[in-house]
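Workshop exercise sheet. Pairs work together: one partner reads the sequence aloud, the other fills in the structure field after running the prediction. Swap roles for the next sheet.
Pair: D.N. / O.F.
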Amino acid sequence: MGEKNILKILRVILSIVIVVLASFMLITQNFEFMPYLMLVLGISTLITGIVEIQKDKGNENRIRSVQLSCKSICHNFTVII
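Structure field:
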């Protein structure tokens, strides 16, 4: 039960970070933080996929979502570096 609470808290924190970064970029018209925003979005999608897999094991679409999230995160690391 504790693991699910940690994932929920992490999803909320990441959602707040996404909204703050996106708002900052829209207000200032400064898009240099776009790779970081995409990285946080990928991590958020990964966590959502993990939660969904825990709810319903064996669904192929959810497993594919986690795989795509991992690819997105790796790509964003290479862009940032």
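Discussion prompt: Residues 2-28 form the longest helix (27 residues). What would you look at next?
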